Amino acid sequence: MSADRLSHELPRTPLDPATAASRAGKLTISTISLCGCWGCTLSILDIDERIVPLLDKLTILRSSLTDIKRIPERCALGFVEGGVANEENIETLEHFRERCDVLISVGACAIWGGVPSLRNPIGLGECLATAYLDAPTTPPGARPTIPLHPELPRLTAKVFPCHEVVQMDYFIPGCPPDGDAVFAVLDDAVHGRPLTLPRAVTRFD
Ligand code: SF4
User: Fold this and answer.
1) Is the dihedral of CA 164, 90, 162, 85 positive or negative?
2) Residues 161-200 pLDDT 10s
3) Are residues 175 and 116 in contact, defined by beta-carbon separation less than 8 angstroms?
4) Cβ(109)–Cβ(83) below 8 Å
5) Is residue 20's pLDDT more than 80?
6) Which atom number of ligand 1 is nearest to the Cα of residue 82?
7) d(Cα 63, Cα 52) in Å, to the nearest integer?
8) Is ligand 1 within 6 A of the CB of residue 37?
9) How far is CA 27 from CA 61, 75, 80, in A?
10) How far apart are CA 63 and CA 66, in angstroms?
11) Ligand 1 neighbour 29 (Cβ under 6 A)
């Protein structure tokens, strides 16, 4: 799906003057969770009270707290948790890419597929059969089926890291990353410094 196709679907509503004034000069950030466990999102929340002094300088457009599905305007920084496991993930990530100037993969799932990608060597068909058709908890005599409904996002054949779907600009490793690592990157961005990840807070487990 191309950004061209998405662009006509996304309303570009001008901000009302009061909102525009309140956001003037502030860094805008957004977060999203694709196929992950929300552990990386909790690491973002682990910034805790350190976010308070930054609030004069940043505006959070979309997050797990606001639950806005689309970013309503251009955004400076987007944090992405999770790999890409279904068509809705693709569309959401492409929307983020279109709206965010800098896009950051947060955690192992976003960076290389992580835990969800353990299904890749097995194959989607076998995974679905094991989960829905051959499950040991299936009652005797039941006729189990694999869920299929237009409202359910179609699974992709593989789980992809985000950078195989859109360009990603920065990576914060870990499962999950340390909250201090997320804060270090955010603090750099808010103060206009090049993004750096101190080795002391970088982890790969
Ligand atoms: Fe969860 Fe680890 Fe994936 Fe983050 S990287 S979403 S903590 S499994």
Assistant:
1) negative
2) 999 999 999 999 999 999 999 999 999 999 999 999 999 9
3) no
4) yes
5) no
6) 6
7) 16
8) yes
9) 10, 8, 17
10) 5
11) no
Beta carbon of 178 within 6 Å of any ligand 1 atom: no
Residue whose Cα lies nearest atom 6 of ligand 1: it is 36
Q: Is 25 exposed, middle or buried (0-12, 13-18, 19+ CB in 10 A)?
A: exposed
Mutate to test the pocket of ligand 1, among 38, 175, 203 (most ligand atoms within 8 A of CB): 175
What pLDDT, in 10s, does the model give residues 108-153? 999 999 999 999 999 999 999 999 999 888 888 889 999 999 999 9
The terminus-to-terminus CA distance of the chain in angstroms comes to 33
Higher pLDDT among residues 51 and 14, named by residue: 51
Instruction: Give the DSSP letter of residue 83.
Output: B
**Would you give the DSSP letter of residue 159?**
E
Closest ligand 1 atom, residue 115 Cα: 8
Residue 163 CA: distances (Å) to CA of 24, 83, 97, 110, 132? 31, 9, 11, 8, 31
